[in-house]
Amino acid sequence: MVTGKDRQKELARKHYEKQQQRREEQRRKARTRTARGAVVGVIVVIGAVVGGVLWLNKGGGGTTTATASPAPTASAAAAAEPKPYDAAAGTCGYVATEGETAAKDVGGLPPAQVSTAPATMTIDTNLGKIEAKLDAAKAPCTVASFKFLASKKYFSDTICHRLTTQGIKVLQCGDPTGTGSGGPGYRFVDENLKDASYKRGVLAMANAGPNTNGSQFFIVYGDETDSLPDSYTPFGTITKGMDIVDKVAKDGVKDGASDGAPKTEVKLKDVTISSKS
Question: Does the first or last residue of the chain, that is N or C, have fewer Cβ atoms within 10 Å of its Cβ?
Fold first, then answer.
């Protein structure tokens, strides 16, 4: 028998997934605009430049590059896919996200060599400190990416841009633009999805489809979020500071809706990660 609560959870889950799909569609359209701009640029300068690199201004600020080149072959496209953790080599394969400019410059891709040692992340916010235990053994590429971004001060002076208060109860952060569409300019594989659980206190990656992880993550503050599909990499557990998340959740969404910017601003002043040897 389907109860009203079950129905509400299902609707919330679908709404969350639809929001993620909508953001990916926005990114896809932006990439299409960039590609079209590159073609126009090639036509304009074809008499003077052949096969050059064009620099274009992307809508909303920021700069991106486009190369006058034929469409990638099937083998080239396959080579551009992120690679999972290679236990024998101790490496992860990060790849640049096509057509996306990093929301904050981090100088390229994270190092391929990663560690599986346990790590602790401290998120220093305007409301207090939130601490989390990171599981590098089960999500090595994810934790290594977070270490890299934290070392580059990528998360410093950013906000948690999204709060959901019905069905799927999460606080989402990690986008320097504060819009929910920004990322680090690279992506990596999904990890730790087998029997994934999204209980209260779980730290997981937000994404826009398989293997599109970047920098956005969410903190689960309600157990009913376990209705989420096993599609979001769980990579840690909050060990301190859930009271901060609970207070933000209690204050609700800025416009009174069930999904949107939190009424109480959560600003990430700094994020640091330490590993145990």
Answer: N
Contact 188, 94 (CB under 8 A): yes
Q: Which of 232, 168, 244 is nearest to 203 (CA)?
A: 232
Let me know: does 119 contact 136? Beta carbons within 8 Å. yes
Whether the pLDDT of residue 37 is over 60: the answer is: no
Q: Which two tokens stand for residue 3?
A: 């109860």
User: Residue 203's beta-bridge partner residues?
Assistant: 219, 236
Determine which helix (DSSP H) or strand (DSSP E) holds 33, and give its type and residue range: helix 4-45
Distance (Å, whole) CA 73 – CA 266: 44
Question: What is the phi/psi pair of residue 269, to 5°?
Answer: -75, -40
pTM of the model: 0.74
Phi and psi torsions of 173, nearest 5°:
-140, -175
User: Does position 115 have pLDDT exceeding 90, yes or no?
Assistant: yes
Instruction: Give the CA distances from residue 69 to residues 21, 42, 66, in Å, rounded to whole numbers and listed in that order.
Output: 29, 10, 9
